[in-house]
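Table S4 entry, DNA repair protein RecN.
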Amino acid sequence: MLLSLTIKNYALIESLEINFSNKFSIITGETGAGKSILLGALGLVLGNRADLTSLKDKEQKCIIEAQFSLSNYDLKPFFAENDLDYEDDTIIRREILPSGKSRAFVNDSPVNLTELQLLGTYLIDIHSQHETRSLTNEEYQIGILDIVAQNNANLITFREHLKALKAAQKELDIAIATRAALAKEQEYNSFLLQELLTANLKEGEQVQLEEELEQLSNVEQIRENLDKVLALAHEENVGVLISMNEIRLAFQKLASFSKENLALSDRFESVWIEFNDIVTESHERSEKVIKDPERLEYVNEKLQVIYNLQKKHQVGTIEELLVIQADLDAKVVKVDDLQHEIEKLNQQVESLRQKVETSAALIAEKRTTAAPVLSKQIMDIIAQLGMPDAQLMFEIQRLDSFNKFGNTSVNLQFSANKGLALGEIKKVASGGEMSRIMLAVKAVLATYSKLPSIIFDEIDTGVSGEIAIKMGEIMKQMSDNMQVFAITHLPQIAAKGDQHYKVFKYNQEGTTISEIKLLPTEDRIVEIAEMLSGKSITDSALIHAKALLN
C-alpha cells in the first residue's frame, strides 16, 4: 500500500509531503485545484515519461518520492528477478533534471523506466476518468475474464508455443520458396553439372595437354632434330664427343702444371659430364618420340571440350570450371536436401500447431467456465447500483486463427432493462451505466488480485443520489481487502471515506501553489457541506453533511 508521497518542484507544487493510511481515502477539491497533478506525480513514480514542462522552477530539479509497504504482497521474487534490493517499506524516487533528463531509483538502486513500469503494475491500479471506455475494448474484456479464469500461466505457455510455431512456419515458408526457385533451375543445372562431370576435369590438366599437343603435332621435326644432335655428337672422327674427349685429355695433362690449369680441367670435366648427360637423354627421347595419330586426336578433342566449356562459362582456367562444378553440385544436392528439411519442418510445425491448439483450447474452456461466474458477480453489484434488471453476458466465439489471446473472441453484451435484448455494451450502455459496470468490475477483480492499492479518478461520472451512496459503499467494501482512493465531486461518496484529503490552491508572491491536507472531522463536515450547497454553506447543508458522515 501507498504510505506516503513527497513532491518537490512539480507543476503547481513547490514542496509537499503527505502520509496515507489503509482502508478508504477520499480526495476532493475544486476543478483545477491540482487533483490531476497528484495523479501525474504518482504516474511519474510508476514509470510514466516526463518532460521539462513538469518543473515548476525550470532551474531546479523535480523530485517525487513514494513509499510503499510491501510486506503482505509476496513481491520478493520480483525484486530478485530484476536484481533489486527488497525492503518491506520500499521507496521509489523519480528525479527530473533541468536538462530534461530523468532518473529513477528503487531503494536507492538505479532502474530504467521499463523496470519501474513493471513494478508499478504490482503496486497501484490507477483508474483514470477515461478508462471506463476501455470496457468496450475486446482486449480489456478478455483481460478481466482471464483474471477470473486464472489464465495467466496458460497464456504464457500458449504465447511461447505460438511464437515457436510462427518461427517454424516462417522457416518452412522460406525453405519451400527456396526449393521452388531452385527447382526451376534444377534441370538446367543438372545438365551443366553433367557436362562438367563428363569432361572429367583435373587441376593443371590443360597445361599438360597443351604441351602434349605441341609435341604430337611436331613429331617428325622433333625426331629429326634429336637425330641430328646424336649424329653430330657421335660422328666418326669428327663427332663432338670425340673432339671433346681429346680436349678433356689435354686438360688433364695440363692440370699438374699449375692451379689455374687444374681449375680449367675441372671446369671442362663438368662440361663433359653435362654434355654426356644431354646426349644420353636425347637418345632416350629420340627412341620415345613416335607418331601417334590416335593420341593426337584424343588430346585435340579433350582440349576442344575444355575450350568450349571455358567459353560457355566465361572463364579462362580449369580451376575456375571446377569451382563452377562444385557450385552446381551444391545446388543440385540442395534441392534434395531441402526436400528432407521441408519434411522435417512440416512435422515440427504440425507438432507445434497441436501444442498451440491444446493451449488455446484450455484457455477457451476456462474462459467459458469463468464467463457466467463473472457475469453474475458483476450483475449482483450493479443491481445494488440501481440496475436490478440489468443483464450482462460475455459472448465467446471460436476463431479460425490464433492471436496473442488464443483463438476466441469475446464480446461483452449488456441490457439495462427487463425485456430488452442484449447488445454490444459500447452501443447500448450510457455513461452512468458504464461507470457503475466498471466499478462492479473493479470490485470483483479486487477479490481475485492481490494488488495493494487502487485509485478511482471520478468513477462516479454520470451518477448521483442513492446510486452514489451505493458506489461509495462498494468502494468502502473493497477497502477491506486493499487500499482504495477515490477522487470525487460527490458528497455521498466523500462521506464514505475513512479519511478525507482536500486539494486546494492559493496565490503566494505572484505564483499559484497547490497543496493537499488531511481534513479533521469539523473541516470534513464543512467540505462535504460545500460540496452539497456550494460556497454559501447553509445550515441544512451542514446538517445533511453530518448525516452523510454518520
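The longest helix spans residues 318-384.
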